[in-house]
Design brief:
390 residues; 17 helices; 45% helix; Alpha-Beta Plaits; alpha+beta
């Protein structure tokens, strides 16, 4: 069966209510598909108009009344605010695999007044409430997804056409009280969360939702070796110089076991100083391999800059004290020292395999967002690779 791309649009309301993590977890675990693309959009009037016009279609097996209800919802809720002109945030996810559209639609569910105890995303997060006369009192679909492969192709290409002008790291979509200053910070959901289809990426995002911050950028990213070397560059010197005591202790235990006699403290200290740079370089290579799938020694100049084999999700969060709030929820680098309820306590294993990375200062966030290039439009690339030029 040929590969398909299935899109899911998380609505402004679902984003505002921090339901992103729960939605993503269900999509990954229940479809078994590969999450290959993600992009934030602030749809223009032109995009909303074209998308709404494409909703009512003879190719859609849903009842025409439901199609019209969705069309009207899109016009009302995805368009820029008519009073302020501010654009609204939506998140577009792309899943790839065999029979992808049907699998995604099965998890998303159809729009109905009969709830099925949370069986689908719309059962849990959506609402369709009618009055006694059969008129709609309230409607929230939670997510938007295509009903079949042909509709998915048409609409994915439509959004891809606007993905440069209307998508990326969003600006001016949020307002704050007077005197409140917003920060931005980067989060990387690390490769250990993607070894097999699991809800962990969504669960980690759920934890971060406690901060009350807003997602303004997202990208599915495969870090190149060159990016990993630059990203973790500040750590390298620390590893080479600050772990003398750790290396000395390891060397003492290993050598005393092998040689059968105790080593004097002065010689142990010298061993630590001698071996620490080598140990640090090896640890740094392990970090680069963990994030990109390769080490610099395994690459020529061309391979250094190619996307790595490991996948992560890069997120840009915005809001007051964003750096501190994210790091409070994340917990310290060593999961064994992380407090209960923190991400690294719940999902981390070691100092390196610790679920997620977060910037430790606003200046670091600017640097790291640039290295990962969260604004890069690989969303359009994914659509064009499968469906041709948009």
């Amino acid at each position: 069966m040929p590969q398909e791309l299935a899109y899911v649009i998380i609505t402004p309301y679902s984003l505002h209510k921090s339901r992103t993590g729960g939605i993503l977890a269900r999509l990954i675990t229940r479809t078994g598909l590969d999450l290959v693309g993600a992009r934030m959009f602030a749809p223009s009037k032109e995009l909303v108009k074209e998308y709404s016009e494409a909703i009512v279609s003879a190719n859609d097996p849903q009842d025409r009344r439901i199609q019209e209800l969705i069309r009207d919802y899109i016009l009302l809720n995805l368009s820029p605010d008519p009073k302020t002109g501010a654009r609204r945030r939506v998140m577009m996810l792309l899943f790839q695999g065999e029979d992808a559209v049907r699998k995604v639609r099965g998890v998303v569910g159809n729009i109905t007044t009969e709830r099925r105890s949370g069986e689908t995303i719309r059962d849990t997060y959506g609402d369709l409430i009618m009055d006694e006369d059969g008129k709609v009192r309230y409607f929230e679909p939670a997510v938007l997804a295509a009903p079949n492969a042909e509709e998915a192709k048409i609409k994915a290409k439509l959004w891809a056409r606007y993905s440069d002008t209307d998508g990326g790291i969003l600006e001016d979509t949020l307002t704050y009280p007077a005197g409140e200053t917003a920060q931005r910070t980067l989060v990387l959901i690390k490769p250990d969360n993607f070894r097999f289809p699991t809800g962990r990426p969504g669960n980690v995002i759920d934890f971060f939702s406690r901060t009350g911050l807003y997602i303004v950028g997202i990208k599915v990213h495969r870090m190149s070796v060159a990016q990993a070397v630059e990203f973790y560059g500040p750590v390298k010197e620390i590893l080479r110089t600050k772990l003398v005591d750790v290396v000395a202790s390891k060397a003492k235990v290993a050598l005393e076991k092998e040689l059968g006699f105790s080593l004097p403290a002065a010689e142990v200290k010298q061993l630590g100083a001698l071996l620490c740079p080598l140990y640090g370089d090896d640890q740094f290579d392990n970090i680069v391999r963990f994030m990109s799938g390769r080490t610099p020694r395994e690459c020529d100049e061309k391979l250094m800059r190619e996307p790595g084999t490991e996948k992560c999700i890069a997120l840009v969060y915005e809001g007051p004290e964003a750096v501190r709030k994210i790091r409070d929820v994340l917990g310290p680098t060593d999961p064994s020292k992380a407090p209960p309820g923190s991400i690294r306590k719940e999902f981390g294993q070691t100092i390196m395999i610790n679920a997620a990375h977060a910037s430790d200062a606003p200046e670091a966030a600017v640097r790291e967002i640039g290295i990962v290039n969260v604004a890069e439009n690989n969303f359009r690339k994914m659509v064009e690779e499968l469906y041709g030029e948009v």
